[in-house]
Amino acid sequence: MRIVVLPGDGIGPEVAREAVRALRELAPGVELEERPFGGAAIRESGDPLPAETLAACRESDGVLKAPIGDPEFDAAEVRPEHGMLSLRSSLDVYANLRPARDGRIDLLIVRELVGGLYYGARGVREDGTVFDTLEYHPREVVRIARRGFELARSRQGRLTSVDKANVLDTSRMWRRVVSEISADYPDVQLDHMLVDNAAMQLASRPEQFDVLVMENMFGDILSDLAAAVTGGLGLAPSASLGDDGPGIFEPVHGSAPDIAGRGIANPAAMLRSTALLLEHALAMPEEARRLERAVEEVMRERPTPDLGGTATTTEFGAGVLERLSG
Description:
Blueprint: E1 2-6, H1 12-26, E2 31-34, H2 39-45, H3 51-58, E3 62-65, H4 80-91, E4 95-101, E5 106-112, E6 122-124, E7 130-132, H5 138-153, E8 158-163, H6 169-181, E9 189-194, H7 195-204, E10 211-214, H8 216-228, E11 237-241, E12 248-251, H9 268-280, H10 285-301, H11 313-325
């Protein structure tokens, strides 16, 4: 088994280092290969996703990606984020899994990741009108819906499909297709919910949810909301999966260039993303649970400054390793 590590920008290399240490402890037989990506790759080659990096990712069993982004490229024509969109599309990782947990809440958002508004036709007309197009083909809805049903079947057996069927034609098609697919999953309870109501329910009663499935932009927004009600983006992991080939495992938070190099970044989200990699890419669910428990314990006992403590990034990672090797 081979995992490609993309250290990223800002605090990326710092949190990636702790993830690699944990992964070597739990999966010592796995080969790890580091490749440039994002801002670091632009400086090196002018491309945020060099051809050699993409080839290595395609041939791997999983991609462990740290955050990217650098103010240096904010106004540039080529930005680190362009590499992320290209990597997702090239690997066809259409299902973005965003778990949100605390002592009371345990929900999973399944976001369609390679279609919709972010990938539709866009442009500027002669009269100055700017447009972005929201498009979905039924087959794109079928595969993300099946992923949602399968995941719900492995959890509490409840799936909430989020749409805007009272306004959008794409959402009406989405609701129809999801309803048709539900016939193949009689053991999963399906509910439909409008996106505005889903936002209100996530903010007020998130404990009611098990698995939620939704299109790209809705998932982008609601997954951040779910993270906010369970500790914040700084603690949130993600996994982006396809049907074949490697998935991408990465924290949700940004590269935090303002604290890069200071040794105070919280590696919890990166470590939690590594747990998702252990589960979904390496088929090591018990090791994944061990890592998740270790991260939870260290967050309570040895928190970093963002959580009100004084632990450095390295000290947090060392605490996790102590629990994994003990």
